[in-house]
């Protein structure tokens, strides 16, 4: 496994819809493993493929935030098939450094997806796992926390990020570690 570089706003790879995975090859499985390693290394609880520059419908999630274990989900072509209730959550994102946004989410969701071995799975999620799944599936549709800001806050954040991007990489990395991360 190897750790990948996390793409940050305003990298254009984060925008737009990602393509469904047609065939789960060894390359896809390797990418999922690398995404999981990258998520743990960055203390994240979820990561979507566009965040590492791949426009494929792949996510990894571990809402227990622990060491890699049986709470790790590696999902191919995940989609929400049922949703219930409403909740608000304060979310950060590895691709949006120094930003916390209050987001309206469904309280519980049912997600259908394929596992790395090609088998179908159905996940009935609530709490943090449900929020995490909604956040990562948003990434696959090109929706970022930034898109949920008022236009004033979005403009300010955009200016700040463009300035940050001009700084040497180590300074950028430091600020990236300060937030919770999905
Ligand atoms: Ni995110």
Sketch the topology as an H/E string, one letter per element.
Answer: HEEEEEEEHHH
What is the residue-mean pLDDT, rounded to a whole number? Answer: 91
Enumerate the spans where pLDDT stays under 50 for 5 or more consecutive residues. 171-179
> Outline, from the CA principal axes?
globular
Portion in helices: 25-40%
What is the strand tally?
7
Which CATH first-tier class would you pick?
Answer: Alpha Beta
CATH superfamily: Peptide deformylase
**Main beta-sheet strand count, sense and barrel state:** 5 strands, antiparallel
> Over all CA atoms, what is the radius of gyration?
16 Å
Q: What would you say the CATH architecture is? A: Alpha-Beta Complex
The figure for the number of domains is: 1
- What gap, in angstroms, lies between the N and C termini? 20 Å
The CATH topology is Peptide Deformylase
What's the total helix number?
Answer: 4
Q: How does the helix and strand content classify structurally?
A: alpha+beta
Enumerate the distinct ligands.
Answer: nickel (II) ion
> How much of the sequence is in beta strands?
25-35%
> Could you give the order of strands across the largest sheet?
1-2-3-6-7
Summarize the structure in words.
The structure is a single chain. The chain is α+β, with helices and mostly antiparallel strands. The protein has one domain (about 10-175): Peptide Deformylase (Alpha-Beta Complex), CATH 3.90.45. The protein is built from 4 helices and 7 strands. It has helices spanning about 25-40, 125-140, 150-165, 170-175; strands spanning about 45-50, 60, 75-85, 85-95, 95-105, 110-115, 120-125. It has a 5-stranded antiparallel beta sheet with strand order 1-2-3-6-7. Strand 4 (about 85-95) and strand 5 form a beta hairpin. The two termini are about 20 Å apart. Mean pLDDT is about 90; it is low at about 170-180. The structure holds nickel (II) ion. Nickel (II) ion (NI) binds next to helix 2. The site of nickel (II) ion (NI) has 6 residues, from helix 2.
């Amino acid at each position: 496994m190897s750790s990948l570089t996390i793409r940050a706003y305003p990298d254009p790879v984060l925008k737009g819809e990602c393509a469904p995975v047609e065939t789960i090859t060894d390359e896809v499985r390797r990418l999922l493993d690398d995404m999981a390693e990258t998520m743990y290394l960055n203390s994240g609880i979820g990561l979507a493929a566009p965040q590492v520059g791949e426009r494929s419908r792949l996510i990894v999630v571990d809402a227990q935030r622990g060491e890699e274990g049986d709470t790790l989900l590696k999902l191919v072509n995940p989609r929400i098939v049922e949703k219930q209730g409403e909740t608000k959550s304060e979310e950060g994102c590895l691709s949006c450094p120094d930003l916390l946004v209050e987001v309206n989410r469904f309280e519980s969701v049912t997600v259908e997806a394929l596992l790395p071995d090609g088998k179908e799975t159905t996940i009935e999620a609530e709490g943090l796992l449900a929020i995490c799944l909604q956040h990562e599936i948003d990434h696959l549709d090109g929706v970022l926390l930034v898109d949920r800001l008022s236009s004033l806050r979005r403009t300010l954040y955009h200016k700040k990020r463009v300035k940050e991007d001009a700084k040497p990489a180590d300074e950028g990395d430091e600020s990236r570690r300060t937030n919770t991360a999905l």
